[in-house]
Amino acid sequence: MNSSLVLAIVTFVYGFSAVLYISSAVFKNDKPAAIGNWVAWIAVFGNVLGFILRWIESYKVGYGHIPLSNLYESLVFFALSIAIVCLALEWKYASRYINTVAMPLAFLAMAYASLKAKAGGGEIQPLIPALKSNWLTVHVMTCFLGYAGFAVAFGISILYLGKRFFAENGKDRSDKGGFELLDELTQQTVMFGFLFLSLGIITGSVWANSAWGSYWSWDPKETWSLITWFVYAIFLHLRYVRGWDGTKIAVISIIGFIAVMITYFGVNYLPGLHSYGKP
Amino acid sequence: MSETGKTETVFDRIWSFFSSVRLSVVVLVLLALTSIIGTLIPQNQTAMYYYQNYGEFILKIFSVFQLFDMYHSWWFRFLVLILAMNITVCSLERLPNVLSIVRKKPVFDAERFRRYKGAQDLTVKGNAIDRREAYVSVVSKKFGSPTVVDSEKGFTVFSERGRYTRLGVYVVHASILFLILGSLIGSLFGYEGFVNIPEGEAKAQINLRNSDKTIGLDFQVRCDDFEVTRYDNGAPKEYRSNLTIIENGKEVLKKRIIVNDPLHYKGINFFQSSFGSIPGKNLTLSFTSKASGMVYEKKIKPDETVELEENLGTFVLQGFLPSYPFMGQDLGESYIGSLSVEGKEPEQVVLPLHFAMFDKMRKGAVSVGIVNYDSSEYTGLQVTRDPGVYLVYLGFTLMIVGCYIAFFMAHQSLCVEVVQSTDNTCRVMVSGTANKNRMGMVMIIKKIASQIETA
């Protein structure tokens, strides 16, 4: 059994869970999502297993590093982070429908990883000297937990806007109290993401300072992570101080996630220090 | 109106301008939008690069707005300054109020708690007095040190926690001021440079990045050894330099540095950043006489003069240049020499390493070419000094602590009121409030209520 096979299966398990969550929303019945929740737990277990197997495999080929060093590996960890944040929310708030959009995002991340693997991006590569540091683990993990928080916030915001749309068109009157919870959860997940994005930027800065003597060099990925940080800082001020909520706050959460996606993927097409994650 | 009255109004206006959160949002939006520019236009490239990619007209316009180094431009710094003033004034405006709330002794009023959202009403069996101890322990487990007020028909338990968490947001704001101040100090008193040291040599001077200035160090750095190790597939595994610091002629520090493990000495940091090889001190040159077609090979060192045969004059090897521009092209690494014939002006001779017979084009009486040269490896070190970094690190720490307090902790207060209604039942009201995350508080109230039901 190798990590590629395990992770390929995990992709389908996430996919199955996504189908169940979405059917719950379509048929307005909690049962498929309840099963989807169990399926998602199985996927998370497989995801962790695949991660550990790949780690062991990297030692077997003689490179020996945590699998967080290229686009494929980061996508695997991203999917895991999204699923864990989703499951934690579902457990804490005992509500099934909140993950209708968010949980399928874990599937999308994993599906993209599988595509990358098919195109040859799944090979275990040696670490270049610049990445040989204990900071690699903490920097990448905090960044991706942050991204995952924002991804879930994005999923919830999309769900909020979707429900609003159908509610205003008179098709869905079943869940009157749901909006308040979604609104609150958008804020909660954004705060989680913001804390971890800050940690990710800070650990990256400290690492950069210890590796090449400057904690900030304005390379495109750094700059975009800061732009993302600005967008969510704006979100928090509008929310806390100016009392924005509902549709307006959902839209800003979506804009923030677009910035996250540019930080993650878009920047690979620009020159800079973070060229390790190129597709 | 009096003169002083007028100035006060102006001051008040400025103050209220800087104390508005609308300004914070506008500045943050501007910072976010303008920051995009620098990720699209490559920063700090050569003028040639910009000229070739953008043309003269756009180059001029971009230069006016300093878009080629926009994060250090006057207008970007101005935006950061506005943000800093905004944060300062906002905090000064709001902090006294918050401090007085934090210092205030809590006032407990069961009547007020009754109106809060999520208040739970329960009916439990038993005598109120018998329940007192159990309920107090339920509350103190979650909240700590409750206040108990006894009444005619029962008692009320009050408690609160996290009053100081109201300061969390100011910790975050202070952290940003520390970051801005730290980076300002760094840009005023720090520098970023590089130095290439051939194996076995020592240097005491570094070149600054993005400028042609140099800085002298009050000690020397010697590279004793440089080594690259590779993976089986040929990709580099590790770059390593053995460095020695020499001060006043004495070796004071030795360290082996690799990419993630630099050398620090007297606030100056040396990082492994590149490597390469440069031509050494021993060359063999060929001198071809046009008249006779004879080729004479001679060994030569920099600053050495050789006498040429057939009265062709004398040749001096003047030095080495890392690049040599020729008719809009870069010839690359080149030696420069000078050829003098009696009674004539000395002629410059360019000897590019990669174009051995380049000098033929001069069409002189003798053409000079490079036969061979030895080379030595050098290590490329990034050299930095940043006295502001400690403030920046303090800012980092405060930001994380502040964000955690501001996001995930709240000032919460709780009230459990017990009233004896008939001989064997009590009415219990569990209620509470929080300055943020009220939904979380409602969940806590539910939890406490269920614990009270079973206590």
Structural account:
The complex is a heterodimer of chains A (279) and B (455). By secondary structure, chain A is an all-alpha fold. Helices cover 36% and strands 37% of the residues of chain B. In chain B, α4 packs antiparallel against α7 and α7 packs antiparallel against α8. Chain B is elongated and about 130 Å long. Chain B starts with a helix and ends with a helix. At the A-B interface, α6 and α7 of A face α2, β7, β10, β18 and α8 of B.
Rg calc of chain A: 19 Å
Q: Beta-strand level of the residues of chain A, as a percent range?
A: under 5%
Number of strands of chain A: 0
Report low-confidence residues of chain A grouped into runs of 5 or more: none
**SS class of chain A:** mainly alpha
Distance between the termini of chain B: 69 Å
The most extensive interface, with participating residues per chain, is: A-B, 49 and 50 residues
Helix content of chain A: over 70%
What's the quaternary structure here?
heterodimer
> What is the number of helical segments of chain A per DSSP (H or I, 4+ residues)?
8
Q: Tell me about the biggest sheet of chain B?
A: 9 strands, antiparallel
Compute the number of strand runs of chain B.
20
Secondary-structure element series of chain A: HHHHHHHH
Biggest sheet layout of chain A: none
Beta-strand portion of chain B reads 35-45%
Question: How does the overall form of chain B come out from the CA principal axes?
Answer: elongated
Low-confidence stretches of chain B: none
